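Re-running the complex after MR caught last week's input typo. The corrected sequence lines follow. Everything else is unchanged.
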Amino acid sequence: MRSHSVSVRRGVLAGIATCAALSLAACGSSSSSTPPASSSSPSSGSSNPLAGGAPKGTVVVGSANFPEDELLAEIYVQALQGAGIKVTPKFNIGAREVYYPQIEKGAITVIPEYNGALLTTSVDTTSKAATTAEVDAALTAKLPSALEILNPSTAQDKDSVTVTQAFAKQHHLTSITQLKPIAKTMVIGGPPEFKTRSDGLVGLKNNYGLTFKSFSPLDESGPITLAALKDGKVQAADVFTTTPQIITDHLVSLADPKFNFAAQNVVPLVYKPGVNSKVTSVLNEISAKLTTPGLLAMDKAIIIDKDPYAAVAAGWLKAVGIKS
Amino acid sequence: MSFLSFAWDWLKSPAQWSGSGDIQLRILQHLYYTGLALVVAALIALPLGVLIGHYGRGGFLVVNLANAWRAIPTLGLLVLLVVLFGFNTVTWLLPLVVLAIPAILVNAYEGVAGVDADLKDAARGMGMTDGQILRKVEIPVALPLIMLGLRTGAIFVVATATIEAEIGLGGLGRYIIDGLATSNYGEVAGGAVLVVILALLVQVVFVGLRYLVVPAPLRAQARAS
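Corrected-run output:
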């Protein structure tokens, strides 16, 4: 149209200027959740992960590209250095698809892992192991000979059925088993695949006999799910057990005694030829002292309070009495 | 297998046309989101665009602001609103309204501002008041562009209303998001094909509306320019 093109010509420079000004104001970063089995959130990474090789004789500690794993790796690094071991950190490498081949080859020596996710993603996709013991046994049997898992910690970052503290108090809830009489009045939220996933609605029905009023497809333990819980749009949701908003939004993850959700214990995955008994004993000591509440508190510090990872790691090590 | 064969296999399965996931329901939901957003956007943008075009002030600024405004990421805005203000009609409707406003506003402004000055002069010479000029001369002459703005806005919204599924609502986006989450690519392809078909139908509806609303001589003139 004639008048349209005249205006376009006139407006080009001003349009560019306006766009530039607006776009500068537009972007922001988001806080992230801590999924063990997927690679969604980037963290405040340190060194370039795959730049050059590590000097010989050092332990290369890698991490996945989400805050919780980077924090755990930071703890490993500080504790190993405290024991006088030479360490090269390689944080923020990527998803398991990226770093697992690295540790198989020995380019990385140690990485903090989650036993359940490691098993079903990279080692045996068909495994039905659920309890910590079953998962660890399956890993020990099926990991390549150069790799091994050390002692698992009791700390787990796994799926859960989470409710608000108010709701739990009202219905006296501490465990998923207690949902049976009220499930049909409740809407449960989770990622869209929760509807058909074997540990989702299907598993909750088979293991606990739960039939919910309806299912609301949201995101995987992300901001939309947390908003839905807070808003009362759903009465229960699939939230990862170390999501910091559990503290700040006053939520509670119900116990899962039948292991509907497979165990996801934090466990060091190591490349055997690259470690010695001194290294493994330091890592085992960390695992022994790490608990889910402890990990949750640290996640809150780094994700919500935005405290620096190094300080949070150092603080925890000091509190549990490990030299760093 | 091609994208279309994925889509066809999923679409022709009878399970999609009955039960809680049925296509008819999703289409109706999708049209509801689109329709409501378009109506609200038009109620805001049409009067604004027409008045700015009529008085001729601030047009430059408004047009460039509206165009820059198109850069707002609709999905990001939706998630932000839901996290801040919870799940209600305003939080799911506002991002789609924001998306539709620039197209309607800019075209309404251009339409009215571009009315031949001679026409307005002649109308004033005949003794018409400002309001009469607006109603009897400017708006009718601007109708082709106004309809174009509404049509463009409608296409934007019908294509983007798929994001409502992100916050647990319905619509055709449900197939795309659920299909992706469960790696059911037939569902994704089928949902996408349905959105395209719906968008084409919206085009057809607006072509029909244009035929009904815009007088024939203006339609011919608009086509010629």
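None of the earlier attempt is carried over here. The CA atoms of residues 147 and 209 of chain B lie 8 Å apart. Chain B has ten helices and no strands.
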